[in-house]
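Exercise: predict the fold of this chain.
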Amino acid sequence: MIVITGFGPFGAPGSVAHESNPSERLALDAGSRLGAHVEILPVSYAAVSNAGRLFSDAELVLSIGVAGGRREPLLEKQAVNWKESAVPDIDGTVARGERIDSTGPDRVQTAWDIDHIAAGSGLGISLSAGTYVCNALSYSLYRHHGNACFLHIPPAEHLDLDAGIGLVERIIACSMSA
């Protein structure tokens, strides 16, 4: 089973994903086209903390999140064991600078052949998923699931939905052939 995740709306009125989160629409539409299982996650540190174990039966997991400052989609090679943000998650939690997992390593990497997949899908690679909920999800997945990766997409005005669906299809195809 292939699992694709996206995030639900979050943030202050007028923010990049307040009314709807572009990662949600992309995950739902790409998942439908690929016949994948889709999970829309709340933008919540608590909700994503165990995601790596929740999807343990999946053949592969591709998680998608929106990064407001980006203009192009990028695959996240690693995640750090740190959460910090002035912006609260949807539960109202503001991470003031703390480890995600007190016993975990400082950083973890995807097990995917990220260079092969990025080249095959026409993508760049990022070495920082930030320190917000996207990073916390990536950390859980990379630490506890052997076949997962995180895709950060730009706001909707910088990525057409059909182009995004094609991109997800290429990523999945490349990951299965690597």
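Check your answer against the key: The chain has a mean pLDDT of 93.
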